[in-house]
């Protein structure tokens, strides 16, 4: 009996985000600061108490059930019609996201009765902050130079660009989207690279300069500084990666045989996988704000505070545990309570400028893609 | 400028003392003890407000108070710079106020159970630090 042909590109396209989200959902509660449990301030020992373990166990069970249900949806990609294939491709991701959030809200509700008042102590370092980004501040020029070279090559060799050029490639590396020769289609990829790198560069600067430090001295402050350096280095790595990716894709217009698969496709995919791996590795090793760094048992030996420090924000300002709205806090970026990194203070008017910028960036990217496609 | 633990400013938002007063008192203590020297820059109002999770105006008010006392030079977009402060001549009223507050403070400490000799030792140490 002949086995059915499997649509591997679509199956892989659905399984990759499914796997990433399932792993992220299981790990995220374990990465929060010890005195924050499902975005609720608790005593640091609560996590290990029977009640804490039970909440975590029920959360894990919900996440696994949702992941299995989402995996069943992947089978839709084999059902033939484009609409069902789309359900199989995107359905698992949306189902997991909704299930994850639901499991988080349920766990948060169970953790609420164990809430304790966080410390009212605040501290700030008065000496100038020593910020030493990987490669120095000049390292930021690299991605933009790469894209500038791509722009220059396309401009310089304009006459050699054929009338029809590839602008989209499938999972196998072969072109599957074409456009007529036009400045928007020729420079489109490099332009998307420029927009993405500019956005990441802004985030990189904000992380280095604008985020609040929870601790101002001692080993906890040193870990936070290391965490900020790790995240900023990752963002810089992303910029170089995307500049190379979009720079190379834009130069595909100059290839003598544009219909042939991209020669550097698999190295590009490998790089992408390595970047995803790096995200998980940094998150798992560091924990939020770098609190997991240090030798085994070192955390237990650090001096304890009279009340939980958490992230020095009031619990009542965290709407649904993930949206921070505090008019009395001048910070634009604050540490996430559930997850790694920072989120926006939605009560700060500048936060809406940032959100507007992100929406503009997404719209511009979509517009470039749609307007150039034949 | 000294480093690390000595240059950390701590305030308590649950304290009855207003936050701006706590910031000004904390900074003044560091200035009097010579932790900051003329020419040193303090963090910008924005940065300090973010780190302490207080409104910009709270930090700005504390800086203005210290500027009025002659400790800081405040210039737009340049932050707060520590300046050489002319030695002040204390009025009789402020001397009397200080004696009164010190007496109340030590009385409170004794009432809380602190040893009188230990208090005296701490005052001696403080006096030595001020004379350096």
Concise structural overview:
The complex is a heterodimer of chains A (374) and B (132). In chain A, 55% of the residues lie in helices and 8% in strands. Chain A is mainly α.
Please tell me about this protein's structure.
The complex is a heterodimer of chains A (374) and B (132). Chain A has 9 helices and 9 strands. Chain A has helices spanning 8-31, 50-74, 82-111, 141-156, 183-209, 218-251, 265-286, 298-301, 349-372, and strands at 36-37, 40-41, 121-125, 164-169, 175-180, 318-319, 323-324, 333-335, 342-344. A two-stranded antiparallel ribbon of chain A has the order 1-2. In chain A, helix 4 (141-156) packs antiparallel against helix 5 and helix 6 (218-251) packs antiparallel against helix 7. Chain B has 2 domains: 4-82, Orthogonal Bundle (Arc Repressor Mutant, subunit A); 92-131, no CATH class. Helices cover 54% and strands 11% of the residues of chain B. With 132 residues, chain B is mainly alpha-helical. Chain B has helices at 19-32, 45-52, 56-68, 92-111, 116-131; strands at residues 8-12, 41-42, 72-75, 79-82. In chain B, strands 2-4-3 form a 3-stranded antiparallel sheet, covered by helices on one side. At the A-B interface, strand 3 of A face strand 1, strand 2 and helix 2 of B.
Beta strand % of chain B: 5-15%
Order of strands, widest sheet of chain B: 2-4-3
CATH architectural name of the largest domain in chain B: Orthogonal Bundle
Please tell me what the overall shape of chain B is: globular
Termini Cα gap of chain A: 41 Å
Number of DSSP helical runs of chain B = 5
- The parts of chain A where pLDDT drops under 50 for at least 5 residues are none
Shape of chain A: globular
**Helix proportion of residues of chain B, in percent?**
40-55%
Q: Biggest interface between protein chains, with counts per chain?
A: A-B, 21 and 30 residues
Structural class of chain B: mainly alpha
Unreliable stretches of chain B: none
Query: What fraction strand of chain A?
Result: 5-15%
Instruction: Please state the average pLDDT score of chain B.
Output: 88
Structure summary, number of beta strands of chain B: 4
Number of continuous helical runs of chain A: 9
- The radius of gyration of chain B is 16 Å
Q: For the record, what CATH class of the largest domain in chain B applies? A: Mainly Alpha
């Amino acid at each position: 009996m002949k086995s059915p042909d499997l649509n591997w590109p679509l199956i892989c396209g659905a399984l990759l985000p499914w796997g990433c989200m399932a792993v992220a959902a299981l790990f995220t509660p374990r990465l929060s600061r010890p005195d924050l449990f499902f975005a609720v301030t608790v005593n640091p020992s609560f996590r290990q108490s029977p009640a804490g373990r039970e909440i975590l166990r029920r959360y894990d069970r919900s996440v696994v059930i949702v992941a299995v249900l989402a995996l069943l949806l992947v089978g839709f990609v084999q059902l033939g019609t484009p609409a069902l294939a789309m359900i199989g491709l995107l359905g698992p991701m949306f189902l997991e996201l909704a299930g994850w959030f639901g499991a988080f809200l349920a766990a948060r509700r169970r953790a609420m009765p164990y809430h304790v008042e966080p410390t009212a102590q605040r501290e700030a370092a008065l000496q100038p902050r020593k910020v030493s980004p990987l490669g120095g501040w000049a390292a930021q020029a690299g991605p933009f130079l790469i894209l500038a070279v791509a722009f220059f090559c396309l401009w310089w060799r304009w006459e050699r660009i054929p009338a029809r050029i590839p602008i989209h490639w499938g999972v196998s590396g072969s072109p599957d989207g074409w456009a007529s020769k036009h400045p928007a289609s020729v420079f489109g990829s490099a332009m998307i690279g420029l927009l993405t790198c500019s956005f990441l560069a802004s985030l990189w600067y904000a992380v280095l300069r604008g985020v609040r430090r929870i601790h101002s001295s001692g080993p906890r402050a040193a870990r936070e500084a290391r965490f900020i350096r790790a995240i900023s280095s990752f963002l810089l790595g992303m910029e170089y990666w995307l500049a190379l990716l979009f720079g190379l894709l834009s130069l595909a217009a100059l290839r003598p045989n544009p219909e042939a698969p991209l020669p550097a496709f698999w190295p590009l995919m490998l790089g992408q996988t390595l970047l995803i791996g790096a995200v998980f590795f940094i998150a798992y090793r560091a924990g939020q704000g770098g609190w997991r760094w240090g030798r085994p048992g070192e955390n237990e030996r650090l001096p304890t505070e009279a009340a939980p420090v958490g992230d020095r924000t009031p619990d009542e300002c965290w709407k649904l545990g993930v949206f921070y709205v505090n008019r009395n806090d001048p910070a634009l970026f604050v540490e996430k309570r559930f997850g790694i990194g920072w989120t926006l203070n939605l009560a700060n008017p500048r936060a809406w400028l940032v959100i507007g910028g992100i929406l503009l960036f997404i719209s511009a990217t979509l517009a470039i893609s749609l307007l150039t496609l034949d | 400028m000294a480093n690390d633990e000595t240059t950390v400013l701590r305030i308590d938002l649950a304290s009855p003392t207003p936050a701006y007063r706590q910031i000004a008192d904390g900074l003044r203590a560091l200035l009097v003890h010579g932790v900051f020297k003329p020419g040193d820059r303090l963090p910008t109002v924005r940065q300090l407000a973010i780190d302490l999770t207080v409104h910009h105006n709270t930090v700005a008010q504390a800086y203005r108070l210290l500027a009025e006392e002659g400790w800081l030079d405040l210039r737009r977009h340049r932050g707060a710079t520590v300046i050489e402060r002319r030695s002040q001549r204390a009025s009789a009223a402020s001397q009397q106020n200080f004696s009164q507050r010190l007496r109340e403070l030590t009385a409170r400490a004794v009432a809380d159970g602190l040893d009188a000799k230990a208090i005296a030792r701490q005052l001696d140490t403080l006096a030595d630090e001020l004379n350096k």
